[in-house]
Amino acid sequence: MSPDAGTEAAERRRISTELWRLVLPVLWFGMVAAISFIEAPLKFQAPGITIPLGLGIGRLVFAVLNLVEAAILLVYTLLCFWPAATRIAGARLWSWMALLLVFVFKLTVVRPPLNARTDLVLQGADPGQSPWHYVYIVCDLATLVLLVVVAVSAARAVLPAKSRR
Questions:
Q1: What percent of the chain is modeled with pLDDT above 90?
Q2: Under a CB-based contact definition with an 8 Å cutoff, are residues 75 and 24 in contact?
Q3: Is 146 exposed, middle or buried (0-12, 13-18, 19+ CB in 10 A)?
């Protein structure tokens, strides 16, 4: 294989990796935007939906969303560090780290009290207002912003070197 063929193959591999680094955050963005900011508030406006029923549906939907988010984050993480020739660095590394931290915070700090509150409501109690829903919304907003940042970074990396200036 000629040196040019090796360089072309490496460039194709780089572009392919960057395209996946673009597609995954865009997919994730769409899922969070649709579920957190469209489905979640609207379900409580449907006829016949009670608070306990809506919370039960929400728990199921958000549990599955979080599983899918985790899968996307895992694949995205692998693409950030493999192959070694296309490993991210600098601001892109910080964006990935922030995305990871927000996701872990949401699952380990925010979800447990929300689940406990849902348990109480499903048992017939009235635990009153909770700030945790707002914290979850802030986490999702931060996630959306970070996903735009990582998607734009990937899109810029796909552009030819002349266009990136």
A1: 81
A2: yes
A3: buried
